[in-house]
Design brief:
membrane, mainly alpha, Ferric reductase like transmembrane component, about 0% strand, transmembrane, transmembrane helix, single chain, rod-shaped
Length: about 280
């Protein structure tokens, strides 16, 4: 059974980051009573260092998820840590800057960080939704070999029912078999192609009721069985299509999350270099 990484070890990382964030906020509030908060104060510099370390850990997850030999944390533990630390940085960075932003490289770094974290949260939601789909029998259906085999089984049964039947029966059976899952090459068109709806199944039932007039009386009982199998087939196809749509969304998400993460890291490094450069110029 798929375990929700958000709730890893009873929300261990969620609780830890929440407590840590509250402590950091309290320290910020106390220190701001004594000095004007900004990135150059002791608290500001400390929070800046913590923010940069958190960003490095966030980037390390990309390397960790490609490693299959880790003897320490599981990938699920890393993902839980990755998401919660990302959310924490959204609060930590403004504390570092004293909530002072403008049209400069420093604010750009935070905007990019926000895009990365928000897209990461959306990706986490997709990660949870993707593996779980249930068919009408209450069994878990994951897009892949199991669902393909289930489709083949239904199609074999439909063809067996159509054997030695009238031409009208055979034509209707073949038309239902030809109504299949979209091929992989349709790509991202599935993102806006909402073909899997309850309305399509309802219209299919109406179609089969209309087909009865074309079916000989002796075959109508068997045709009812064909209609039942065809309905099962379309329901399974609709679930597979929905999973394919989620998979395509996940691929589209990667085109945002990963490149922006790299750009964000570069901008953060530039931000640090600019701060050190101007600090050196001022001190001399």
């Amino acid at each position: 059974m798929h375990e929700n990484f958000w709730a890893y070890r009873r929300y261990f990382w969620g609780k830890l980051t929440l407590v840590s964030t509250l402590v950091l906020v309290m320290v910020y509030i106390v220190s701001s009573q004594k000095t004007s908060p900004n990135g150059g104060t002791l608290v500001g510099l400390t929070y800046g260092i913590l923010s940069f370390l958190a960003i490095l850990l966030l980037m390390y997850y990309g390397k960790r998820k490609r490693s299959y030999t880790s003897k320490h944390w599981s990938l699920r533990a890393w993902l839980s840590f990755h998401v919660y630390i990302g959310i924490m940085t959204l609060i930590l960075v403004p504390l570092h800057a004293g909530f002072k932003f403008g049209f400069d490289i420093h604010t750009l770094a935070y905007v990019l960080l926000a895009i990365v974290v928000i897209s990461g949260i959306l990706g986490g939601i997709l990660y949870v939704l993707l593996p779980r789909r249930f068919n009408q029998f209450g069994e878990e259906v994951t897009y892949g070999n199991n669902s393909d085999e289930e489709l083949r089984r239904i199609i074999r049964q439909m063809r067996a029912l159509a054997a030695d039947k009238s031409q009208a029966f055979a034509d209707i059976c073949q038309a239902e078999i030809d109504h299949g899952v979209p091929k992989h090459h349709v790509g991202w068109s599935l993102l806006w192609n909402q073909r899997a709806t309850a309305a399509t199944l309802a219209s299919q039932i109406e179609e089969f009721e209309g087909y009865l007039a074309r079916i000989p009386d002796a075959e109508q009982s068997t045709f009812q069985n064909l209609a039942r199998l065809a309905t099962q087939k379309r329901e399974l196809e609709n679930r597979i299509t929905a999973q394919m749509r989620l998979q395509n969304l996940l691929e589209a998400w990667l085109y945002v999350h990963l490149p922006v993460s790299i750009i964000m890291l570069v901008v953060v490094i530039v931000h640090i270099l600019v701060v050190f450069y101007y600090g050196y110029v001022v001190s001399n």
